[in-house]
């Protein structure tokens, strides 16, 4: 019995300790923040100390909001306005050129920063409303990415590792060219020797020759593999392994 009691007691103590840590810290913090910032007396929820806070809040609410002269807040309508509309507001502090490129993501060119970002605080990194890939599935058809065989790791890393969320100078806003993206995780396949073993020392081309199915493009990893998911093993983009391009094998 005693042996059973002890861990229970310990657990209870631990729980009390954790509770104290979780409650005391924020309470004192909010009290301090209120003193500093009169807006937080009523808008406590804008700055939840347990979340990731936009560092802009440290500059002050008036970095983005301004009180309308002659109006009383919150009594009068439109008593507080945004300094500028989004995204101009964001570019007051963030460099616009970083979100520009030859290929711009539609929600970025449509100025919908808040489709992906919270402006004040968030549970996730980069102030995102939810984490990728779920964020991406808000607008992109999820079923396309989770067919029978799917590339779980690459999809979960679909942050900047593969596609830039805002813009880049490569098609599909890739951060690097296709082969470099894949080889970053699959160095063994860099030579193309995994495709077919040839006795004459030749290896199968994976670049530098035209792709027979995509007239203006060179061969690369996705000439044969789908980068996200597929109904065929090895993420093949079609049932045809070789006769997609060759007549005799
Ligand atoms: C006395 C309490 C109180 C204080 C202090 C206060 N607000 Fe408000 N605020 C409100 C209430 C109530 C609303 C209306 C909420 C609603 O309609 O859902 C509001 C709404 C807003 C809105 C939404 C837009 C609008 O006009 O409805 C913004 C933005 C805002 N407040 C910013 C601020 C900022 C910035 C400060 C500090 C300068 C501030 N508030 C101080 C109570 C307050
Ligand atoms: C980086 C710019 C920025 C800063 C700094 C900022 N806000 Fe906001 N705030 C916005 C934007 C943009 C919106 C409109 C959001 C939308 O349309 O989804 C907004 C909306 C609001 C709203 C109404 C909607 C809501 O989320 O409840 C309130 C209230 C508010 N802000 C209060 C504050 C307070 C209080 C502070 C300071 C602690 C603050 N904001 C600091 C940009 C900012
Ligand atoms: C008053 C200045 C200011 C404004 C306006 C502003 N930001 Fe920021 N923001 C900052 C600072 C400072 C940082 C921290 C340094 C950095 O990452 O550049 C930051 C960081 C961020 C981050 C990264 C947060 C993280 O956890 O890594 C995002 C995302 C962001 N801001 C989005 C926005 C968006 C969207 C807008 C417009 C609605 C905006 N910001 C407007 C000052 C601002
Ligand atoms: C489709 C979703 C999406 C949209 C729309 C979007 N962002 Fe982002 N943003 C992201 C993601 C995802 C990250 C995190 C990137 C990473 O982890 O490397 C990010 C990161 C950021 C950062 C942090 C610094 C950086 O470059 O990593 C800033 C600042 C930022 N975004 C500003 C903006 C602004 C301003 C807009 C509107 C013009 C905007 N974003 C629109 C998804 C989006
Ligand atoms: C707010 C909606 C929205 C969100 C969230 C979103 N996208 Fe998009 N995305 C679009 C639209 C609209 C297009 C253009 C139409 C199309 O090609 O489907 C697009 C196109 C793309 C393209 C094709 C290349 C291009 O620029 O046309 C890629 C790749 C892409 N998105 C990746 C992502 C990734 C990765 C995420 C998550 C980090 C994401 N998207 C989140 C709306 C969104
Ligand atoms: C972030 C790392 C990463 C990147 C980038 C990446 N992969 Fe993968 N890939 C993996 C891992 C880990 C596995 C094994 C587990 C899995 O399927 O997620 C894998 C599995 C595969 C498989 C075998 C799937 C099967 O059904 O056996 C193929 C084929 C593949 N990747 C091709 C590619 C191609 C083509 C690219 C570039 C478009 C690429 N990978 C980019 C990490 C990555
Ligand atoms: C010409 C078609 C073709 C091209 C181009 C191609 N592959 Fe493959 N890949 C294959 C075939 C065929 C297999 C199956 C080999 C087997 O059965 O062992 C395969 C298998 C794979 C596997 C799974 C290996 C395993 O052991 O499970 C990975 C990972 C992979 N390829 C990555 C890549 C990467 C990365 C590139 C670009 C550098 C690439 N492939 C280019 C045809 C191709
Ligand atoms: C996406 C198209 C594509 C697929 C799929 C494909 N190949 Fe190829 N293959 C090519 C191209 C392009 C060449 C180069 C032709 C040239 O040099 O004229 C080539 C060359 C070859 C060569 C000659 C290599 C040499 O230099 O001696 C062999 C053998 C070969 N492929 C076998 C295969 C086999 C086996 C498969 C199936 C596992 C396959 N290929 C799948 C496009 C493809």
Give a verbal description of the structure.
The protein has a two-stranded antiparallel ribbon with strand order 1-5. Strands 2-3 form a two-stranded antiparallel ribbon. Strands 4-7 form a two-stranded antiparallel ribbon. The relative contact order is 0.07. It is built from seven helices and ten strands. It is of the alpha+beta class and 249 residues long. The longest helix is centred in the N-terminal third of the chain and has 35 residues, at 2-36. Residues 38-39, 41-43, 61, 65, 67, 73-74, 78-80 line the site of one heme C (HEC).
Q: Secondary-structure element order, as H and E?
A: HEHEEHEHEHEHEHEEE
Main β-sheet, spatial strand arrangement: 1-5
> Structural class of the helix and strand makeup?
alpha+beta
Overall morphology: elongated
Q: Radius of gyration, Cα only, in angstroms? A: 27 Å
Distance between the termini: 73 Å
Could you give the count of β-strands?
A: 10
Average pLDDT, rounded to a whole number, is: 86
């Amino acid at each position: 019995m005693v042996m059973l009691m002890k861990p229970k007691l310990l657990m209870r103590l631990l729980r009390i300790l954790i509770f104290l840590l979780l409650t005391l810290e924020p309470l004192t913090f909010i009290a301090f923040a209120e003193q500093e910032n009169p807006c937080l007396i009523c808008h406590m929820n804008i700055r939840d100390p347990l979340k990731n806070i936009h560092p802009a809040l440290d500059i002050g609410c008036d970095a983005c909001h301004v009180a309308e002269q002659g109006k009383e807040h919150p009594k009068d309508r439109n008593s507080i306005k945004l300094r500028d509309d989004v995204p101009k507001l964001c570019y007051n502090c963030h460099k616009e050129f970083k979100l520009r490129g030859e290929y711009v993501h539609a929600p970025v060119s449509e100025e919908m920063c808040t489709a992906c970002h919270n402006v004040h605080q968030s549970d996730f990194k980069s102030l995102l409303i939810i984490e990728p890939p779920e964020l991406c599935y808000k607008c992109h058809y999820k079923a396309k990415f989770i067919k029978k065989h799917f590339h779980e790791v690459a999809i979960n890393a679909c942050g900047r590792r593969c596609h830039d969320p805002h813009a880049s100078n490569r098609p599909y806003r890739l951060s690097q060219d296709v082969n470099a993206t894949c080889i970053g995780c699959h160095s063994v396949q860099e030579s193309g020797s995994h495709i077919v073993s040839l006795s004459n020392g030749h290896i199968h081309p994976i670049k530098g020759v035209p792709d027979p199915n995509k007239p203006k493009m060179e061969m690369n990893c996705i000439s044969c593999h789908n980068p996200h998911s597929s109904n065929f093993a090895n993420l093949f983009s079609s049932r045809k392994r070789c006769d997609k391009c060759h007549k005799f094998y």
